[in-house]
Design brief:
This protein has about 100 residues and is mainly α. It has five helices and no strands.
């Protein structure tokens, strides 16, 4: 299997993050300032899109370059469920809790 080129990775990121009709005006997010409520209730963006970034951030911080697409959906759902039950928790704390329980 070949590795994706930086051009194809950049194109994929551009497609995922490009604005679409009805998109909110906010362009950049500081994930460290997001709450679970904002994540779980679509107040800032689609949780799936943020979940993709969170998964990459978490794995990148640990030097893990593998992406399990099925696990990605599962992790995003777990984070969203956790956040629904804990709306005042900072999102990054929720991510650490969810990933810690998985290991």
């Amino acid at each position: 299997m070949t590795r994706p080129t930086s051009i194809s990775v950049a194109l994929a990121v551009a497609l995922v993050t490009s604005p679409y009709p009805g998109a909110q005006a906010q362009v950049a997010l500081d994930v460290t300032k997001m709450t679970c409520e904002q994540f779980a209730t679509y107040k800032i963006a689609n949780p799936k899109l943020i979940g993709i970034w969170l998964n990459g951030y978490h794995h990148g911080a640990r030097g893990d370059t593998m992406v399990d697409v099925q696990q990605l959906d599962t992790d995003t759902k777990k984070i969203q469920d956790y956040c629904i039950q804990n709306p005042d928790v900072p999102l990054m704390q929720a991510v650490e809790s969810v990933f810690a329980s998985r290991n």
